[in-house]
Amino acid sequence: AKTIAGEKGTVSERSFVMIKPDGVSRQLVGKIVSRFEERGYKLVAIKSLTPSPALAKEHYIDLASRPFYGGLVKYITSGTPVVAMVWEGKDIIRQGRRIVGATNPLESDPGSVRGQYAVSVGRNLIHASDSFESATKEIDLWFSEAELSSYEPTAWGWVMADN
Ligand code: GDP
Ligand code: MG
Description:
This is Nucleoside diphosphate kinase. By secondary structure, the protein is α+β, with helices and mostly antiparallel strands. The protein contains 8 helices and 4 strands.
């Protein structure tokens, strides 16, 4: 059955991607969005907002016991907005993580977003869901069903072909 995160392992798979406040402040939104667009992924939803502390805390709840949790929530809720997105397409969850790069930018592939633009783990520009379960939770947390669009990009058949 199709869930809010699409169907795992199909062209309807979805991931939650967020440009963090440093990415917005550094005016890297267009460059980052372009990587997903040019790969052929479908933009299903996008909005900019300053998350409430409650939203940021829930998003990162699995890290609540870590020493950097307080600082992480403060960073995400700084007042400079984030850009929250849902992207869709074949293997988007795994490929999204590859586009984003390793958590510590000093270990990220230089071709990844973090590897090209960041050096600090606490200012690593971008988030992407790390599993189908995370994508389901995160899309549901950040978006309502009504905010998720259904359409077919003109190149979809070419890009997502499986034959
Ligand atoms: P991600 O999935 O690659 O974003 O990494 P995690 O889920 O492990 O951590 C979530 C976010 O917490 C990271 O993207 C960083 O912004 C932050 N973070 C993780 N580890 C550290 C750390 O050791 N120090 C600081 N300051 N922030 C961290
Ligand atoms: Mg994570």
